[in-house]
Amino acid sequence: MLALLNDFASYQSYLSSVVRFSSWCSNNFLHLNVSKTKEMCIDFRRNRTVISPVVINGEPVEQVDSFKYLGVILDEKLSFTEHVTAVQKKSQQRLHVLRKLRAFFVDPLLLLRLLA
């Protein structure tokens, strides 16, 4: 769940939407796995308000500062620094492996296949 909350009214609307979604799932014989559900509130204000976690089926939903969605790491400020850092780290690891293999005179065509 991703929430962009400006005031108390939008927070109440958000909570009612979660309750409606939860009841819709139970009416349609769907089970929400609360242990896999995350909540992230996006707030650009300097003084963030502390929001209590949403409760679904008696279990509180974990609040997180960032999460990976479709391969992109989103954080609560919608900056991509954590995502860029992760991609940079992954590329450096692959480049290191390629350099080590090149030192053993591995065929360049094989090195290209390892990139894919």
From TrEMBL:
Domain Alkylated DNA repair protein AlkB homologue 8 N-terminal, residue spans: 81-112
InterPro entries cross-referenced by the UniProt entry: AlkB_hom8_N
GO MF annotation list: 2-oxoglutarate-dependent dioxygenase activity; methyltransferase activity
Top-rank taxon: Eukaryota
PANTHER family: REVERSE TRANSCRIPTASE DOMAIN-CONTAINING PROTEIN
Name by which UniProt lists this protein: Alkylated DNA repair protein AlkB homologue 8 N-terminal domain-containing protein
